[in-house]
């Protein structure tokens, strides 16, 4: 079995050294040094052999995990429907709002990763897929904004609920907000697809490391947002809280308008 060291001496010029280690072949040395690092050994003629360590599998998985984590964390910080909904829900639902949103978001992403490996990546970036998700998403955004505006007169910071039905609602909302965002689907069908294929070169654990880092990056940011809003609610009165929810509802409506215009543009271009 090949060891983790690769001989870098010239096999043709120094054949004696290569035969010093039984089974040693050019580019594939089974000699296992007693300690890590650049190892040295001398043959009978005093020629120095050097072997240098390759990256271990654990190191490769850690690099995939860390790269995916920071990419997801930076993306999560960008404003969007999911972040807006988290801000609105955290003050009343508690610090669990963000993690539960991300649970639904992550479950949906896991399903999408499976679909991508089944060969549906190009379908996700199709024009009509984009149009369908954009128009459907805009309707969902409009409904959510309408529901938030309609609930404003009755909203109070004392209406904090933590029952199982409430938890399921937050998980479902996280998934719904994700699938209704056409740019989320496009990201996974393009950038995400390329990153997944690269991670796939490292096998199952490479993909698992990439996906784990991606979900954890989202989780860390949304948990931080939820905890910050929850702890800061003592500074809010019911009136200010209603204003915050109204503002979030307005942003959700703006995203709905943006998704609608984005979905209609290819249709109008096709008719012209």
UniProtKB/TrEMBL annotation:
One of its GO terms (cellular component) is plasma membrane. One of its GO terms (biological process) is amino acid transport. Its main location: membrane. The chain crosses the membrane at residues 64-88, 100-120, 126-146, 204-228, 240-261. Pfam families: LysE (PF01810). PANTHER family: LYSINE EXPORTER PROTEIN (LYSE/YGGA) (PTHR38825), TRANSPORTER, LYSE FAMILY (PTHR38825:SF1). InterPro entries: LeuE-type. The keyword ATP-binding does not apply. This is Lysine transporter LysE. It is a multi-pass membrane protein.
